[in-house]
Amino acid sequence: xxxxxxxxxxxxxxxxxxxxxxxxxxxxxxxxxxxxxxxxxxxxxxxxxxxxxxxxxxxxxxxxxxxxxxxxxxxxxxxxxxxxxxxxxxxxxxxxxxxxxxxxxxxxxxxxxxxxxxxxxxxxxxxxxxxxxxxxxxxxxxxxxxxxxxxxxxxxxxxxxxxxxxxxxxxxxxxxxxxxxxxxxxxxxxxxxxxxxxxxxxxxxxxxxxxxxxxxxxxxxxxxxxxxxxxxxxxxxxx
Length: 239
Prior knowledge:
six-stranded antiparallel beta barrel, 2 helices, 15 strands
C-alpha cells in the first residue's frame, strides 16, 4: 500500500547490503516508539547510524542493547534485529549496530493506494503475540489502551494510512480496529490492522502521528468492499 506499481522484491543478504544514506526506523530497547535514523556508513564491523532525538535530547543507548529495525526497499518493508556495539557521542550523535542476517519481509505492496479523507474513531491495542499465529479482537481485549480519533488519508486493498492528532507513544506491532463506510453504496467495513510503520506529523499540520497499517484477516464482504472502492476511486481520478 505504499503506492506505485508492483515490482520484484529485492533479495537482501543482511545489513551488509544496506548502503550509506539509507533511511530506516529503529526501536531501541527501553525507548518508546520507533525513531527515524540515517545510515552513515557500512563496513565489516557493522553499520553506523545517527542517534535520533527523544524530546529535547538525543537518545543514549547502552552497549549490548537490543535494536529492532524497519526499512523500505523498493516495494517491500523489511524488519531485522540487532544490538548496539558502540556509541559515539562526540561531534555527531551516532552508534554502531552489529550486522544482522535475519531480514524478514513483513509487507509487499500489492496495489496502488488512493487518497481517501475519511474521519474515523479507532481503538488501539498494545502489541501481542499469539501462539497460533492468528489474531483477532478476542485476543486483544485485555490490551485495549483507549479510543482515538483519526483520518484515513489513503487506502489500498492491503492497508491504509491513518493520521491522528494523538501524541500517544504508538509502536510498530500495535493493533488498531475501526469501522467505516467507504462509499454510500457499499456496506460498512469493520477492520483490524497491525501498525507496520509510524511517521510523525509536522507541527504545521497540528502534530501527532500517521499510522501505516496492514489489514488482518478481512472477511470476504469487507475485502470485496475495499477492493471495489479502491478500483472505483482509482478509475475516477485517472485522467
